[in-house]
Structure formats: structure tokens, C-alpha cells
Amino acid sequence: MLTLTQVLPPEDVQRVRETLAVIPFQDGKATAGPVARKVKSNQQAVGADPGMEPLRRFVREALLRHPVFTAYARPAVWSRILFSKYGPGDAYGLHTDDAFMAAEDGGRLRTDLSFTLFLSDPETYEGGALLLDGLDGEREHRPQAGDAVLYATGRLHQVTPVTAGERLAAVGWVQSLVQRDDQRELLFDLERVRAGTPAGETRLLLDKSIGVLLRQWGTP
Fold first, then answer.
1. Same domain for 149 and 96?
2. What is the pLDDT, as a whole number, of residue 75?
3. Fewer beta carbons within 10 angstroms: which end of the chain, N or C?
4. What values do phi and psi take at 216, rounded to 5?
């Protein structure tokens, strides 16, 4: 699990919020699987609205510019990004996301990683935490607007009930070039070492090693 800070600066968060203000929303159960539908209570922006594709592209490009996202996720295939809204009484109970989903290009993707990009400042709503269940227990996340949480899709998670205000977020899934978590983590560590290594023989050896591992583990 990684927290990505400043995926969107405040002015871009405001731009997304203003666009969503004129897009109709519908019951979020429409995009949930049969199990998750039973515990989901929120609203989602209507995916077919003409304003949605530019908004999805805007958020996707922001994530791709974020160095931590690209170094760890190595996205190969994207789902369509969804925009959700939670008001008082809304929640998304404990669930796990589907292993395969519709891809942005109309095909299918294996959901290796999930992300939630927060679009509301935590001071403007109560509750509404993204709660992830892991081997170290439960962890709640209510970061600043413009920050995102990236995590392995198989983890049990939930959005706790909103008790006041409004929680806006963008959510999506990616199929990574590298399927296994441990291999992605090793490559991410090597990228971080490489970033702090001056140009020269050591950096060239790191480039070579990262390339060899990508060819062994990657699926173009």
C-alpha cells in the first residue's frame, strides 16, 4: 500500500470538482459486482456523459506523471475511472474487488492494483475513510484532496459511513506489466536506488539489471 501525495494540485482538484458538479450521478450499485452490490451505498457519475472521458483522461495523465505511481504500478491496461460521491449515511461495506473487469479499451483486464484519488479535503466531511484490511490489522486513510492511495486489489477494504459532509473520489484499477507483488516491489526498490545514483558505471549496471528483470517478469 502506498500513499501518493499531490497527484493533483489544489487548482486541478477544483477543476475536477467543478466538472463533476454539472455531470449527473446515479446509484453506485450499477457498477458493482453481485457481492459488492449488497454492501454498496453511494452515487457515481454517469459514465456515458460526454464530460466523463476528458475527465478520466485528465486524472489518468496526472497519475502517469506521478513518479511513484509509474515506478510501482507499471500500468499496462486501465479500467475506466469511476467518480463516486458519498453523503451522510452512505458507505461501502467490507468487500474485495473482482479479479477481472472491463478495460478502458473495451477488452478485459486483470485487476492487479486499485487506486482511490481523494477529491475532498478531510476537514469537509466526517467518516468516509478508506479502510484496508491487512496482515498488520486495519488501517484507515483520509488523506488530503489530491492525494491517492494505491493498493493490491485482492485486499479486503471498505469505505466507512459518512456522517456529515460530502466525500468525492476517483477510483480505478490497473493491470500491471508485472503481475506479482513481490517482483513489483523489488523493481520499485531498484528504481529508488537508481534515482539516487549518479551517472556512471553503477547506474548503468542498475539500468541493465532492471531491464533484465522486466524482460523476465513483464507481460507487454
1. yes
2. 96
3. C
4. -75, -40
Q: pLDDT over 90 for what percent of the chain?
A: 87
Sorting pLDDT into bands at 50, 70 and 90, what band is 129? very high
Same domain, 166 and 108: yes
119 lies in the same domain as 191: no
**Count of structural domains, the chain:** 2
* Same domain assignment for residues 167 and 186: no
Same-domain status, 116 and 187: no
- Domain shared by 43 and 63, yes or no: yes
Residues 48 and 113 occupy one common structural domain: yes
Give the span between the Cα atoms of 137 and 159, in whole angstroms.
16
Cell of 23: 455531470
- Distance, C-alpha 34 to centroid of its chain: 21
pLDDT in tens, 169-201: 999 999 999 999 999 999 999 999 999 999 999
CATH code, domain carrying 87 = 2.60.120.620
Give the separation between CA 172 and CA 101, rounded to whole angstroms: 10
